[in-house]
Amino acid sequence: MTYDKTLARFGSYYHEFRRSHPGVAEDFHAAIEELLTDGGVTYDRVSTRLKEWSSLKAKARKKGPDGALLYPDPRRDIHDMIGVRITTYHSTEIPVALKVLRDSFVVHKSVDKAKETRISGGFGYGSHHLILEVDDTNEDLQDYVGMVFEVQVRTVLQHAWAEFEHDIRYKRSGIATGAADGTTGQLNPEVDRMFTLAAGLIELADQQFDQIAALKETGHPTDETVEITAETLPGVLAMLIGNRFPRPRSETYRFLEEILTVHGVTSVGALRELLDVTDIELLLKIMRYRFHPGQTRIIDDLLLKKFGQVHIDATAPKDAQPPQTKRRGQMKRKLEMMQQAHIAEQPSAISAERNTEKEQQS
């Protein structure tokens, strides 16, 4: 009866949280995507969810082999009420994603499931799990300070494997029988053997993709007048700045092409001029990036440094809809920081307004 009361209190907390934060999944999705993009992580997708009460309640009731509750204080002990899953194209991107997350949140726990599987000499489930907490330094998640959530980071192949195994191996009737307490029953040995073989192939395929990513080289145009496009930007940037700043997702190069074109930066020569080493070092010193910026962040900030309010108005106009309105506020704060450090080449709108007021008063 005592635990029923505990569970009832947990249910009240859950339903109140859900009512007061109807956009929790979208908020975490937007915040995590922005962090990964700023960090130059090449990822496939980010998915987020708030666990349904039926699943949460079933988890809270689980017991161990000794009959003791696994989560005696469910509000404290269950960490995946809010869940985030990140999939990357190949495993070399996973450490980059993990660093971005560790630099952005308080880390409670970090578990490499793939490593655990390798140590045990088996094949199969591969994923990195993080238990993280939102602290007050995260501007985009201020409504969730103190919340603990779980993040799973996998490759696309690892994710496909996990989804297929969960559906076929554990959910389909006739393959495994489930015990009343929710634990998995006896597995069909032949199915188990086939899954092990398939898991070995998945691991081998992931390794091959890593090697392909390492060996892939893009042709580098050398003519300063060559026009830059979303398709040529990866190679041009590799030529101009090497691997100093992490590459973004492929589709982000379209955004880079757009913001560069707005200011007439349409050739290799013009881009080389923008990527001035001195300007880059100034940004790295002044902007206090939470983690090493990717290509997208450094180019966007160089354009802001050079063109100031013009860049803000061109890429995040006043009448824009979310998420552009959020971008506009962020860019204004960055421009003020550059102004205070005397590195901005154009005055901010705020400075211009203040100067106008002074002239009128005099």
Order of helices and strands: HHEHHEHEHEEHEEHHHHHHHHH
Mean pLDDT: 83
CATH topology of the largest domain: Beta Polymerase, domain 2
What is the domain total for the residues? 2
Q: Tally the beta strands.
A: 7
Task: Identify the CATH homologous superfamily of the largest domain.
Answer: Beta Polymerase, domain 2
Please state roughly what percent of the residues sit in beta strands, choosing from under 5%, 5-15%, 15-25%, 25-35%, 35-45% or over 45%. 5-15%
In whole angstroms, how far apart are the ends?
A: 77 Å
Helix vs. strand class: alpha+beta
Helicity range of the residues? 40-55%
Low-confidence segments: 118-124, 173-184, 217-221, 348-362
How can the largest sheet be summarized?
A: 5 strands, mixed
What is the gyration radius calculated from CA atoms? 25 Å
> What is the global morphology?
globular
Helix count, DSSP H or I runs of 4 or more residues: 16
Strand order of the largest sheet: 1-2-5-4-3
The CATH first-level class of the largest domain comes to Alpha Beta
CATH architecture of the largest domain: 2-Layer Sandwich
Protein name: GTP pyrophosphokinase family protein
Domain RelA/SpoT: 48-176
Organism: Corynebacterium gallinarum
Region (Disordered): 314-362
